[in-house]
Write a structure and sequence with these properties.
Layout (H helix, E strand, L loop, with lengths): L6 H13 L24 E2 L12 E5 L2 E6 L4 E6 L1
Length: about 80
């Protein structure tokens, strides 16, 4: 299930992180697309402003990157730099 995030959508997401002062999450191991996050990592709800295609996912902000996560298996599906 590939998620396509348009450049202007990426800009919206990055702006949201800065404007809302989203606190970064510390993750013990490197976050890798395709791998699941540990159960102790808190997943955040994707805001409506990111677009209707993304609201079914969750996200984390870590290491100056936003990662989209499939909530059912906690798998990282996309990295937004």
């Amino acid at each position: 299930d590939t998620v396509v995030i348009e450049p202007e959508q990426r800009t919206t997401i990055k702006r949201y992180i800065v404007e809302e002062k989203v606190a970064p999450v510390r993750v013990e191991k490197r976050v890798v697309v395709g791998e699941s996050l540990p159960a102790d990592v808190e997943l955040r709800t994707v805001p409506q402003t990111w677009g209707p295609k993304l609201t079914k996912y969750r996200y984390i902000y870590s290491d100056n990157h936003v990662y989209l996560v499939e909530p059912s298996d906690r798998k990282v599906i996309e990295e937004i730099e």
